[in-house]
Amino acid sequence: MKKLAVLMFMLTGFISANAQTVDEIINKYVDAMGGKDKLASIKSIYMEGTSVMQNGAEITQKMWKVDGKLMRREISSSMFNMISVVTDKEGWNQSQRTNGNFEPMTSEMVTNMQSETDCAGPLFNYAAKGHKAELIGKEDVEGTECWKIKLTLKTGRDITYFINPTTFYIDRMATTGGGFGGGRGGGQGGAPRETKIDYSDYKKTDDGYVFSFKTTIVGMGGGLFFEKIEVNKPVDPKAFKPEVIQ
């Protein structure tokens, strides 16, 4: 009985130490991104960037976020245009596939993408948001042994973050079957596929917010370079609706 008590004590200590390690890493990530107060102050984000396809075609992406209420992404090029709108209640997609019309998303798609309305990102205050975090070791990301943290959202979807042990920025994020949470996205038909996005070129904006100014979908080459990131600017109410805004 005494041996069992000692074993239980050691096991409890191990679990506690592991949880503290996870929180320690996440807290250092929060500090690297400007700190709790800075992240908590983000109520809206506007991001605008461009990428170049292998054939030389230029793609422009614009994204609006209102914390907990909206994620709107517009992607346009000479070849195609796509718009996705997700609110805290519903969502729509518009593209050539929908003949230019806005079609409602399924409830599963909306649920999977609503984490993208989180302006500070799901890692920040994860426990208060109902998410669970687990440190599952380290993994190489382009030559850097990054901390690997599995975040299970309250919806049940998993996001894996690879955090640089030197900068404590997110170097990579991976998920399946849905959009990505926070830039701070899964397969269609058949089995969900894993999508990975690398984040780099972290810089501080003029008003002191830290963002990755380059994102790259692993295996797709190139990258999306953001030329403009604005925080806490007014958002046109039309952005919440399934319509084209000018």
Describe the protein.
The structure is a single chain. The chain is α+β, with helices and mostly antiparallel strands and about 250 residues long. The protein has a single domain (about 1-240), classed as outer membrane lipoprotein receptor (LolB), chain A. The protein contains three helices and 13 strands, in the order ααββββββαβββββββ. It has a 13-stranded antiparallel sheet with strand order 6-5-4-3-2-1-13-12-11-10-9-8-7, covered by helices on one side. The longest helix has about 30 residues, at about 1-30.
What is the fold's blueprint, element by element?
Layout: H1 2-32, H2 36-40, E1 44-52, E2 58-66, E3 70-76, E4 81-87, E5 91-94, E6 102-104, H3 107-113, E7 132-141, E8 144-152, E9 158-163, E10 170-176, E11 194-204, E12 210-217, E13 224-231
Antiparallel strand pairs: 1-2, 1-13, 2-3, 3-4, 4-5, 5-6, 7-8, 8-9, 9-10, 10-11, 11-12, 12-13
